[in-house]
Every structure is written in structure tokens, then in C-alpha cells.
């Protein structure tokens, strides 16, 4: 059970990011999350929920409420639920003093911080290298109770550095011990994925059913298969690859931009983007990755036709004749991009994102993508994407990453031409 404490969370004022972080980290350890609960800074509700959770699960992770102020209740509530008192720990107090003495507040540590040197008796302290609040963990009955500080920058390293080792392989795994297969599905509507999975399950005649869960992210659907046997999960996954195409269904939880980044990095290649409708989204996606300067040279957002001509040397007559969303325009954009940036790979995207601007011949969602290498390889593909303006733009960016990938790996790009749904 994940139990997030904080009135801002239960009221929805700030977004709870711990469930996503802890949920996926636990999944990777083979521990399934029974439920995630958000409670306000209110002792009665918090304690009732904690007691119930300790009855229901082998592992309860409480987040937040470890600070020095009076609304921080986790220490007291955890001690009560565990039936122990709070215990002052000299070593925690010394660490707090050192943290203050070493910092700018050498004048003295506020008395309220003394609270943070107390943890439930018999529990282990978890050192906080990024803040003042130590975490703690200990057994309550048959369950393990872990308390972590609220700020993500403190919680995440504490969990990875100190909690994971206590969880793997033992605690929390009894009763789940199940196989989990994680994959990614690109450019496919969730409804198509759902129908395909249902059909594949009906066709599988073995006992025991494979269940699935999906999480729709900005650039992909993360798919998790559980239940049934490992062979059944593999069969289902293979079936999905055959149905939707190997380019669009992938093993492991890897973002398309990460895949392209790895290919570029290992081969010592550089990329740049010429964007129209995506307005810089491709540049953002790649620069989100640390180390992107190794592979990314820059981009040109040429929204207006005049800039397509001035910056990317797309002939004005060509734009007049074929339109800005056309094979000819995309190819000219990628060629102009390569000569402007001298990257080894140039990718150009032009599309009709909608909601207006579509025609019979070029409906909203028409996208042309041209990838071109300095060595002379070239691939130009049109896509017909569905969805809102936002979805068309995000899917165009993913499609551009896939075209780039096909160009570099030599993968058969025909699978991209017939998108499912
Ligand atoms: P502090 O010593 O900073 O008070 P704390 O352990 O008491 O730490 P909280 O007071 O519950 O933690 O939360 C501190 C801050 O951490 C919140 O204001 C919020 O910005 C962030 N935070 C807490 N819980 C979450 C969460 N579940 N998801 C994202 N951010 C969170
Ligand atoms: Mg606090």
C-alpha cells in the first residue's frame, strides 16, 4: 500500500508524483501495489488508514509528514500504529546539528527540528542526504512499514539507495510472485490495443488468463501483462507485435526518443530537426534527455512559409504548387536543414494539426515526414493521424522519431505506412 500524507495532496492542490515513481519502481522489483491512498494531515484519518493498510499488505510506504512543523504527523501516527513509543536518537540529532553547522544557519538549529531526531522505537533510521527529515522503517506485525519524506528530491534517492535493498528479494513478494511483462505501444489508439488484446486472449485456449493494464503517456502507451504463465504472456505479446507491427510494439519501457538517442550516441551521429506543426516539440523531447548535446545540434521551427523559404531554402514556387504539407515540402525542408546545420541526420515534419485547415485532399492529421542523412539515405513517409490538435502534434513527433530510427537501422518502414485504427 502506498499512503501519501498531506492535505495539499488529498485536496488535489499539488499533484502526487510519488505513486508514479514508487509504483513503477516497485513493479520493477516484482511487487504489486494493492492500493494507493491519499490522506490529509489529520491524525485520526491517517491512523485509521495506516492500521487498515498494515492489515492488508506486506509493505506499507508512507510518504510525507516528516517535517518539523505541527502538521507533520507521520512519526507519531506510525509509532501509535506500531504500538511503540517515539525514541530520541542521538545519532540523528548529531546529523541534524552537523547539517545546520555546516550550512548557512550556523547560528543554531530551531528547537522544532529536535522532533526530527525521534523515530518509533525499534525502527531503523533512513539517512536523508538531501534534507533534514530522516525516514525510517521497521516491522509492524507481519508487515514492513517504511516512512519517507515528502519532497520528491529527498524521497527518490532515499528509496533507491536505502529501501530497495531491504525489499529485494524478500519482503512483500509472497503471494504475488508473478511474472510481469512490460512493453510499449506507439501511435496506436488505446481502443485498438484493447480490442486486439481481447481477441488474442480469446484465441488463447490455455488455462489461466493473462490480464493487462495500460498507462497512456504523452508519447506511448505503457502496457503491462500479468497473470497466466510466462509463455502465455510471451505469446500474447508476440501476437500483438504481429497485429500492430514490430515497429509499434516494443519490449521494455523505453521512450521512442531514448531509443533514437541511443542509436545516435553509439554511432557518433548528430541530428537536427526542422519543425512546422510540432512547434519545437521534437527539440524539446531530445533536450529533455541529459547528455543530448552529444547528439543534438539544434532545430529550426519554420512555421510561416516565408521562413521555410528563408531558413530552409524551400523554393517559394514549390510551396505554392504542392502546399506546405506535402512530400515535396518535407523533402526540401530536410535537405535545407542538412545544409544549414551540417548534422549527420536531418528530420523534417510538416502537418495539418487542426482543428481547422483540413481539406478533402489533405484532412486534419495529414503529416509528411522526411528523414535524410549526410551520407545520402532518404526516407519520406506520410501519416494519417487521428485525434485532437494536441494528439496529432504529439503523434507527429513520435512518427518523426520512428522515421529517423528506420532510416538509421534499416528497419522496414512499410509498417509505419499502415497505422492501426
Ligand atoms: P518537509 O520537511 O519539507 O516538511 P515532509 O516529509 O514533512 O517534508 P511534506 O510536508 O508532506 O513532507 O511535503 C513537503 C513538500 O513535498 C510538499 O509541499 C510538496 O511540495 C512535496 N510533496 C509531498 N508529498 C508529495 C507527493 N506525494 N508528490 C509530490 N510532491 C510531494
Ligand atoms: Mg512538512
Q: How would you describe this protein?
A:
With 421 residues, this protein is of the alpha/beta class. The chain is 40% helix and 21% strand. It is built from 15 helices and 17 strands. The chain has helices at residues 7-10, 18-28, 43-56, 74-82, 90-102, 152-167, 190-203, 230-244, 256-267, 281-287, 305-312, 316-322, 327-341, 389-409, 414-417; strands spanning 2-5, 36-39, 59-63, 86-88, 118-120, 124-126, 135-140, 143-148, 180-185, 211-216, 221-226, 249-251, 271-275, 296-301, 345-351, 366-373, 378-384. The strands form four sheets. Strands 2-1-3-8-7-6 form a six-stranded mixed β-sheet, sandwiched between helices. Strands 14-13-15-16-17 form a five-stranded mixed β-sheet, with helices on both faces. Strands 10-11-9-12 form a four-stranded antiparallel β-sheet, with helices on one face. β16 (366-373) and β17 form a beta hairpin. α3 packs across α4 (74-82), α7 crosses α8 and α9 (256-267) runs parallel beside α14. The longest helix is centred in the C-terminal third of the chain and has 21 residues, at 389-409. It is elongated and about 80 Å long. Residues 170-176 have low confidence and may be disordered. The structure holds adenosine-5'-triphosphate and magnesium ion (MG). Adenosine-5'-triphosphate (ATP) binds next to β1.
Uncertain segments are: 170-176
Number of strands: 17
* Structural class estimated from helices and strands: alpha/beta
| H/I helix tally | 15
**Termini separation:** 37 Å
| Largest beta-sheet details | 6 strands, mixed
Query: Which cofactors or ions or other ligands sit in this model?
Result: adenosine-5'-triphosphate, magnesium ion
The radius of gyration over CA amounts to 27 Å
- Taking strands numbered 1, 2, ... along the chain, how are they ordered across the largest sheet? 2-1-3-8-7-6
In percent terms, what proportion of residues is strand? 15-25%
Mean pLDDT: 91
Helix content: 40-55%
**Tertiary shape:** elongated
